[in-house]
Amino acid sequence: MTHAAAAGRAAAGALWLLAALLGAALAASPPPGTVLALEARAEHGAAAIDATVGGRFRADGETAPRARTGVTQYLLRFATTGPDGGPAEAMAQLLVPHAVSDDALLAFAPGSTGLDADCGPTAIWLASERVETYGATALAYAGQGLPTVLPDYLASTGGSGLQPYFVATAEATVVLDALRAARQALRAVAPDVTVAHAFAAGFSQGGHAAFAAADRAAVYARDVPLAGVVGFGPSSDLDTLFLHFTHTAPWVVRAYVEAYPGRLDAADVLAEPFLSRLDRDVRRMCVLGAQAAYPEDPAALYAAPFARALAAGTLARDFPAWREAFDRNDVGLRLGGLPVAVLQGVDDPIVPLPAQDAFVARLCGAGSPVRYANYLRTRHETRYIGFADALAWMRAVAAGTPAPDDCPEVLTP
To answer: How confident is the model at residue 260 (pLDDT cuts 50, 70, 90)?
Structure first.
């Protein structure tokens, strides 16, 4: 299906479409998923998309996809639910193909960027007018004709202004409400486009967010036609993250202390000097800064009793409050048989293959058909090598083709 190219959509600078123009009255607390504002910010022709996207694929050793259509890039602001259950506002990038080839909509959740809002993909784009790595991923899918929304994670409503990092409920609401708002926005700017299927996808932390959204879709967003979940090296397990990607574990500590007030103590987890400087660090470091600042060795980062318990698998006995917090944010538990694709690097040092095998086995055991693609000589980054596989998988699921299922092999002893 096609619709008019963007010349009529983004004439003469920024175009704002308030919720009233989209057919929803702007109340004091609009329902989650309501569009609050939509601004056309950039036009990308097919050649420009190839120039933006191609180098990232080639740098990863992959053949770059050729864009089939141009794309209009919008700034989308929408209502959602905060981690405290109250109303909140979020923002996303909505990428609308000039020639839409799918009756589907993709929400792509980004990997770890930072707790401060200025580290988020949309904040970087607005500050620099540069399409950063996750914006380029979204642009690649939209360039193939698939409408795509890229949400930023929420800032906390608890007063700190920091992302509730790896808090599953906060990740889920922003992904699901981004899909709701994107559908509403598409009705305004591309009324001939049909969204019959929605997909939640994400890389690393974004995989955690995508599975968190799928867990909660049937209760929180039954109006979203969620058809499947795609995880690119998804970080689904907090124990694995704390053991193998220590650089962002302090972010989890800071976020969970705020999310569960009075129940957790950062001093249980972090050694000095990292404990004393935690609040300062989370406000000044994006992901590259955290990778430079925090040691890879868990024994160097964590307080000795916590490090021993983590390594021995005895958190439930020795640090039950932290065990409960980790378990509360487990994902992939309530998919209800939803089709899944997991794209995993065999040499992934952040989510090692045995840990991903265990996650996939659990998904299979719960009844989801799982396409489990393992890429040889590939580490954590599977967005590029898995791009064509993920796109083909989503299109097949949307077309009603039985979802491929590797579970018989996964579950074979």
So the answer is: very high
